[in-house]
Prior knowledge:
This protein is an all-alpha fold and about 290 residues long. The chain has helices at about 15-20, 25-45, 50-65, 75-105, 115-120, 130-140, 145-155, 160-170, 170-195, 210-220, 225-235, 240-255, 265-280. It has one domain: Up-down Bundle (Butyryl-CoA Dehydrogenase, subunit A, domain 3), CATH 1.20.140.160.
Amino acid sequence: MTPTPTEKVEPTDAELLEAARGGDRRALEALIARHQPRIFRFGMRMCGDPEDAKDVLQDTLVAVTRTWNDFRGESSVSTWLYSIARSFCLKRRRKEKQAADRVETLEHQGGDSFVHAAAERQPDQLVRDGELRTALQDALLALDEKQREVFVLRDVEGLSARDVADSLGISVEAVKSRLHRARVAVRNRLAPIFFGDESQVPASRPGCPDVLTMYSQNEEQEISADLCAEMERHLEACESCRAACDSMKATLHLCRTSPVPEVPPEIQAQVRSALRALVPSPLGPSSTD
Ligand SMILES: [Zn+2]
């Protein structure tokens, strides 16, 4: 009986790796095809530039075709891939930063170039969602690099805090503390759009707790039941903290629903040919195309 597509069970990453180790190059191709759109998105969020993201994706996938056989499966495949992609992002950013510093010195430009870029846009030509997504990207790029990678992996790519820690080689505690700061910073950059403009952003009143950080801590199950109940009571009574929490929630929702981009066909083709050149097919003609 031929299974209908809905009955077909996709092989797991581990099964694909095992098949690849047995000489099935198509299994490796399938594994890469499965993960590449999200690696591309990660590169887009980290670099902010589609061309850079393409380079990062290509470098990552080509590195994978060279090193996959050394991968021992101590972490998940996606954790491993993100850690490779991240190292290429960092290299690229470092090079760009050096170039940008030179331009900055030459032109005596003050301020944040992303803020300038945002100011040049005409918001009334953009639908709100598009505006928010653009602002989100600006907010990500304005983050300190260490906060950015934690935030993107946790809140855009949806890795667990443990997997983020493994990808970056840092402790879970470090992940969480960077994450809380990053979330508050991103929410603060988006708040004027959520509330119409800067003057409408609710200010916390004297004596209000740091509800944005607490909201983030609560997402990571770091808040005790007692503290959580106390926070709920405060939110019930305090309109501005409630609005602030709602905007934090909306910020995280925006991140978690970030679209997965299509991988440019030229990169897919380059990676396929790199695979064919680097990974022999010992099973003979049946495993080649
Ligand atoms: Zn309050």
